[in-house]
Design a protein that fits this description.
Elements (H helix, E strand, L loop, with lengths): L6 E3 L3 E4 L72 E4 L52 E3 L6 E3 L4 E7 L17 E11 L2 E13 L6 E2 L4 E5 L10 E9 L2 E6 L11 E9 L10 E6 L5 E5 L17 E7 L1 E9 L2 E9 L4 E7 L3 E3 L13
Parallel strand pairs: 13-19
Antiparallel strand pairs: 1-15, 2-3, 4-11, 5-10, 6-7, 6-9, 7-8, 8-10, 8-11, 11-12, 13-16, 14-15, 14-17, 17-18, 19-20
Length: 375
């Protein structure tokens, strides 16, 4: 089983043990096959709109009772064993508050969601378990991101919408499989806005309790539950997914780091790395270095192109979010050579690059407009 090497070094650091998340889906199979009604008129959020960052309420005692909403789902492959435990990694002590949403400073950006964990907590992705990681094997990609927080940390709606699922059984369709369903206690929200005429949903998993009911309307930043360690996990955290209704396939996952608004003054790096312009470089290590501070990040490209989806414009296989604005360079080894690319991160925006093992680096997008036949 492969293990990703990732490292974030910054001037203010503290050492934290980052627990691991169980895989959430089987490759190339819809996570949920229950075709709930799609909004008849999908609207995209007005970019000038704003949403306040959620405040942290006092945790409340959670009842052991929670609503279940059985659905039809594809069985989980068994057994699920040999769960990798991440090594201790340095993490940032402080980060700026998150930008108001929706935010789109580039034509192709879509930072529509606020963080489901408050700013004064760890609300950035676990570097060991990013979207597309294959810690569990090539046929079990990680379909979201993990936010490492203690049990009973308040969880907030990432955007306005309608709760369509609460309880246990999101994956297996079995409300009694409390410890066997990988999601454990989960919430699904169908949002009242979309992207490219497709509906959007967010998933919140491994919860210890919920405070909303299926069918309830919620607002961005509203308390919906509390983090936990239910389901198949090795430690407490929140598993967060973004799903988009794609024609012919419901609830297809997208990389949440392209949808969550970054901290103020920070941006996101997006890359498409291929061997020859077509074939993706799988699980390839990339090193990112700040020119001004010498901070370093190690990140791997997606370990597979099965069971996950890329952005319709970027067609990416690498996303590194929450990077302070500034000038950087990246290095990667390929074909017996070390390749270097210089770039700049801009506040509240994506920076895109493309690499081919034949022609090298470019910043040209695969498409100037999103293709009409998104797979």
């Amino acid at each position: 089983m492969s293990k990703f090497k990732s490292l974030l070094v910054i001037s203010l650091i503290s050492t934290t043990l980052l627990p691991a998340c169980q895989p959430s889906a089987q490759a190339a199979v819809p996570l949920v096959e229950a075709a709930q009604d799609i909004l008849p008129d999908i609207i995209e959020p007005a970019i000038e709109a704003t949403a306040e960052s959620p405040a942290t309420p006092t945790p409340q005692d959670q009842s052991s009772e929670f609503e279940t909403n059985p659905i039809v789902a594809t069985p989980l492959p068994d057994p699920f064993d040999d769960l990798p435990t991440p090594e201790p990694r340095p993490v940032t002590i402080w980060r700026p508050p998150i930008y108001d949403v929706p935010l789109a400073r580039n034509d192709n950006d879509h930072f529509y969601f606020t963080r489901p964990i408050a700013t004064d907590k760890i609300n950035w992705p676990n570097i060991e378990y990013r979207y597309g990681a294959i810690n569990f094997g090539p046929n079990l990609p990680h379909t979201g991101i993990d936010l490492i927080v203690p049990v009973s940390t308040p969880v907030y709606a990432a955007g306005p919408g309608k709760v369509t699922f609460t309880g246990v059984g999101l994956y297996r369709g079995d409300p009694d499989a409390v410890t066997e369903d990988p999601y454990g206690i989960a919430i699904v929200i169908r949002h009242n806005f979309g992207y490219e005429n497709r509906g959007l949903q967010t998933v919140y998993a491994h919860l210890s309790g919920v405070v909303v009911q299926s069918g309830e309307e919620v607002e961005a930043g509203q308390l919906i539950g509390y983090s936990g360690r239910t389901g198949l996990v090795t430690g407490p955290h929140l598993h967060f997914e973004v799903r988009i209704n794609i024609e012919g396939e419901f609830y297809s996952v997208m990389n949440p780091e392209l949808w969550l608004a970054p901290p103020q003054g920070w941006g996101v790096l997006v890359g498409r790395l291929t061997l020859n312009g077509t074939d993706y470089m799988m699980g390839h290590e990339v090193r990112v270095i700040s020119k001004s501070t010498s901070q370093e990040w190690f990140i791997n490209t997606y370990g597979t192109n099965q069971g996950i989806n890329t952005d319709p414009v970027y067609l990416e296989n690498l996303v590194l979010s929450d990077i302070p604005a500034g000038k950087y360079y990246l290095k990667l080894d390929h074909g017996g050579e070390t390749w270097r690319y210089d770039f700049e991160i801009f506040p509240g925006a994506t920076t895109y690059f493309k690499f081919s093992g034949i022609s090298g680096f470019t910043s040209t997008l695969p498409y100037s407009q999103p293709p009409s036949n998104i797979p």
